[in-house]
């Protein structure tokens, strides 16, 4: 059975200018239930994980100041959000959703977090709407509990996973792969194990052919026993924060290829949703919903 992390706190209210992107966390599960792709049994509610799991990735100083709401004004501006206890609680619960999703994936082959993909969170600070790095925390959890040894992070959000690259720099047990817009945020990029920077308005054909050539070779070379997939839909042509030119169908084919490749190689995969900032919420929901539909078709 497909397992999906969702919690009411994912819809944490924010000031007006931040609310639009948050709507998807309410609408996406409703759409999946409405169309019959999922039932209530597919969803589970994460809780608060042990702080030790967070400290395996983030520095004690940063975590302590974050939990105590003691970040500086500059640090808060860097995150893009006004800091609050509810926001911190949201990030902590998102991390637990990805941890538990990774455990479910070991049994079911695949699992999802409706939220997550907070790949701009560094070990010692937050950036760009990301306070804690959910997939990094889950990756370390799997390793520390001897549930996985070699992990591959496949980041196909339109923005480079700079926090991912920083956290795992020099760590050969986690291979970081980011395929992103060359001219997009972050403008000072970190170095992943493999970065593929795409030109503005990259077409479906160019994007997909690049992915077709890259991912199977990476798996053959690195031989991961677990994959984390960040399936951001901000690669769409109409996205307000992206500069890539993909169609919804191209984005769907991207997800089909990644999930089919994981299934074919018998590698468990945990998927976090990442970004999506189209001016049309129906297109964000459709692009995200495609990933879940494909998972049901390919795995169940």
TrEMBL record:
Span of domain Histone deacetylase: 23-288
Record-linked CDD domains: HDAC_classIV
Keyword annotations from UniProtKB, A to Z: Hydrolase
Transmembrane regions listed in the UniProt entry: none
Database matches in Pfam families: Hist_deacetyl (PF00850)
Gene3D superfamilies named among the record's database cross-references: Histone deacetylase domain
Top-level division of the source organism's lineage: Bacteria
PANTHER family: HISTONE DEACETYLASE 12, HISTONE DEACETYLASE HDAC1-RELATED
Family according to the record: Belongs to the histone deacetylase family.
Protein name, as recorded: Histone deacetylase
